[in-house]
Amino acid sequence: MEEIALKSDEFLKIMMIDGSFIVQLLRDLSKQDGILQPSYLTSRWILPAIRHDLIMLENQIPLFVLKKLFDLTNQESHKTSLKCLSLEFFYPLLHADSETIPESEKPDELEADHFLGLLRSAIVYRQQVQEQEQEQDENQHHMIRTATELSEAGVKIKADKNPNRRLLNISFKKRWLMQPSKLTIPPLYINDHRGTVLRNIAAFEKCHKRIKPDVTTYLFFFNGLINSAEDVSLLHYKGVLYHSLGCDKSVAQLINNITKEMVRDKNESYLYQVVNQVHEHCGKIIVRMRAWLVHNYFNSWGVRISTIGAVLALYLTLIQTVYGFQEIMSGLESSRFGSLLLEALFVTPFKGALKSMVSDLAQGYIVASSFGSNSCGDTCREIIINLCMEVCITE
């Protein structure tokens, strides 16, 4: 750890200057009549950079220090609290199209020691049941399957468009019979700054013993959900994931690198019920058979057309076979069993023998004729005529 070679007075002076700048910046950017007013301290290109630097874990100033400076310099015209101004300033890091925090949020009730902890508290969602200690058999033993695998298994991935829903509130509902199960995920907006915010919150959770690693669990959830550019494309099509990184492969790499060299704690996962239910659903025999068929025979339009054509050809062949068998059975109904048996044992074999004899005699007749023997040729002619008449009678 790097040692700070500053005296107490020098360190206090730096903190006072930085804190005063932050407080004045938040006031200048405060909401007036529903519009964020620009400040003379900033321009369009520098404001995102300031927001990015202030949310870094190593740049955090204790919130009680900023609160003291805010109260000492507060005027009657500014009745908005420091926490509310802070969330209005940092919330666009998580929601690209949102300049204001949701109405359901109550910033003054959030507990935090600094800006990074305040932003984490604004997105963390925990039900009263989930606050209790998890039992031994209620741990998350598995990783979530990829978005492509879930789609092949018939799980419907849906984006939660409720603006008041927190980012980490993910749910899974089982369906019965022909209705697909539904995995509901609030939309996530990804860019370079947003990845930095999530990474810093995850680092803060690893350093803090009194808080649950909810954002870390959320990142591991998306790390399992995304394994390739196809998964990113599918989530984008479903309205779950939006990004401005250029290509889907870059998003997959960013998501996978956020949790790199991090250890997942299965005993403190707030998503253990969702992941375990999804794993149980995908483990059913019918679901596995469906996923196998979709993966091997319906994974693209070309394969789908080929599969449908093969099934149609097999169906037509089966129909033709059934009709041919029906004609044979209808012909056999008019005959007796004894006559059919005698024909199969005696008549049919002799047909072949008689035909072979006729062909042999015909060849002998041709040979004899070539040598000019009229008497022999006449005799063969009579024998062939008699045999042909017998063959015609038997047939």
Q: Can you characterise this structure?
A:
With 395 residues, this protein is mainly alpha-helical. The protein folds into 4 domains: 8-122, no CATH class; 147-299, no CATH class; 301-332; 335-395. 57% of the residues lie in helices and 5% in strands. It is built from 15 helices and 7 strands. The strands form 3 sheets. It has a 3-stranded mixed sheet with strand order 3-5-4. A hairpin with an 8-residue loop joins strand 4 and strand 5 (182-185). The protein is elongated. It starts with 7 loop residues before the first helix and ends with a helix. Mean pLDDT is 76; it is low at 127-137. InterPro entries: DUF247_pln. Pfam families: DUF247.
SSE arrangement:
Elements: H1 8-28, E1 31-32, E2 35-36, H2 46-54, H3 63-72, H4 82-90, H5 115-123, H6 147-152, E3 156-159, E4 171-173, E5 182-185, E6 188-190, H7 192-207, H8 214-225, H9 229-238, E7 241-243, H10 248-258, H11 272-282, H12 285-297, H13 301-333, H14 337-371, H15 374-394
Parallel strand pairs: 3-5, 6-7
Antiparallel strand pairs: 1-2, 4-5
Helix pairs in contact: 1-3, 4-5, 7-8, 8-10, 9-10, 14-15
Q: What gap, in angstroms, lies between the N and C termini?
A: 106 Å
Radius of gyration: 41 Å
Strand order of the largest sheet: 3-5-4
Tell me the total number of β-strands: 7
Structural class: mainly alpha
Q: Count of helical segments?
A: 15
Per the principal axes of the C-alpha atoms, what is the gross shape?
elongated
Task: Jot down its keywords.
395 residues, mainly alpha, three-stranded mixed sheet, two-stranded antiparallel ribbon, 7 strands, 57% helix, 5% strand, elongated
